[in-house]
Amino acid sequence: MSTSEVIKRQMVKESIESQCNSFIEEKINRYLEIEHQGIIGGHYFAQASSECIYLYRDGYFIGAVMMSHAINEGIIKFVAERNGIERHKPDGTTKAIAELIDEFREKGIISNACADASMVIWRSFRADIHHMNPTVAKIDFQKLTQQNLKCLSAIEREIFDFKVNNGAIVPSQPKYWDIKADGTTIAFLRLE
Predict the structure, then answer these.
(1) N or C: which end of the chain has fewer CB within 10 A?
(2) Cα–Cα distance between 136 and 148 in angstroms, integer?
(3) What CATH number was assigned to the domain covering residues 35-189?
């Protein structure tokens, strides 16, 4: 490495360390205010959900809002699959996420609180943000992200609720956990 590369590397390091140290309390507060579920099923959306929390913690609000939309939709599709709910209408079109949420509510698959939380995320400027419509200039992304992640936490707490019995996780709704014949399951840990 050349001397200029070493100097540049040191400058970048110092800049990053300074940024981390100056915002550490804000990051801690944002992380703790979400009250996310510490353990969820190890499904395809679990890592994205965890990264979404980190985006919010670190102040990347637009990215976190976009991810909250995608994770909410992923969970709704997952719940439909695990409950044998057809995602297509008789005419061959796909049910909208809002239609699935309403169907889950009507059939008692999820609670009203969980359905309401999912709808809050669904209605949180999703199309405007994903298509970068001019209206995004007026959105308070920090507030919107906080709202969406609190809703996402409520959804995950309901879907992946569990008790601990003699050190073992006992899911309240086993259909949402891939429990193997030996009684073990793959879980995603977020226990910082």
Answers:
(1) N
(2) 16
(3) 1.20.120.330
CA angle 175, 177, 181 (to 5 degrees): 90
DSSP state of 93: P
DSSP string over 9-30 = HHHHHHHHHHHHHHTHHHHHHH
Q: Domain residue spans in the chain?
A: 35-189
C-alpha torsion angle, residues 43, 115, 84, 130 (rounded to 10): -60
CA atoms within 13 A on the CB side of 95: 18
pLDDT in tens, 10-35: 888 888 888 877 788 998 999 999 88
3 state SS of 130: helix
